[in-house]
Amino acid sequence: MKYVGLTDDPILRKEAHGNPKDWKQFEFSSEAEAIQWEKETLGKPGHEGGLNDGRGWRYGYVYTINSGTFE
Q1: Distances (CA, A) of 34 to 21, 23, 26
Q2: pTM for this prediction
Q3: Which residue in 1, 27, 42, 68 is deepest, having the highest Cβ count within 10 Å?
């Protein structure tokens, strides 16, 4: 299972998620672009997350959920 999220502070979010080894990060120039990416990515099989809760939109990220990571 892959976790998908948006943030303005990718370093802090990566640490909060347990420093996943397969962390992939994407940069966006607008909030609309970020939200569209998140929506499309969450529509893929095996992807969950999207609980932005005000953490921003400038960066998107994806990583594999496993015993060493946190959602």
Answers
A1: 23, 17, 9
A2: 0.92
A3: 42
Identify whether the C-beta of residue 69 lies closer than 8 Å to the C-beta of residue 9: no
pLDDT tens-digit profile of 4-62? 999 999 999 999 999 999 999 999 999 999 999 999 999 999 999 977 666 799 999 99
Residue 57 in any domain: the answer is yes
Residue 25 lies in a domain: yes
Can you read off the two tokens belonging to residue 15? 């640490």
What is the C-alpha to C-alpha distance for residues 36 and 28, in angstroms, rounded to an integer? 10
For 17, the token pair is 């998620």
Give the C-alpha distances (Å, rounded to integers) separating 16 from 9, 33, 39, 45, 56.
11, 24, 22, 24, 15
